[in-house]
Write a structure and sequence with these properties.
Blueprint lengths: L1 H18 L26 H6 L11 H23 L7
Length: 92
């Protein structure tokens, strides 16, 4: 019985040492977010807005609402691009 208690204490101590950063290091954290696939600079096109996907997180967002907004922005951007192509004055 005492041997079992000593083994449990040693095991818990080993876990504490590893968790505190001593011993072999833990694996490097990696970024699991999807690539946004939009240009970092310059104007965004309607296709750029359609390609955007946001990562989910605990207590994240309502995907349908964000997707609806992105669709609306893409449609508005297409209208602006079409007006620019027709030679009309740019709206914004």
């Amino acid at each position: 019985m005492w041997l079992f208690a000593v083994l449990v204490v040693l095991l818990m101590g080993g876990v504490a040492v590893v968790a505190a950063g001593r011993g072999t290091p833990m694996a490097e954290a990696y970024d699991d977010r999807p690539d946004a696939l939009v240009p970092a600079t310059g104007p965004l096109s309607a296709d750029d807005l359609r390609r955007v996907r946001f990562p989910l997180a605990f207590r994240g967002y309502r995907m349908a609402e964000v997707d609806a907004l992105l669709d609306r922005l893409a449609a508005e951007r297409e209208a602006v691009e079409a007006a620019d192509a027709d030679g009309d004055a740019p709206r914004a």
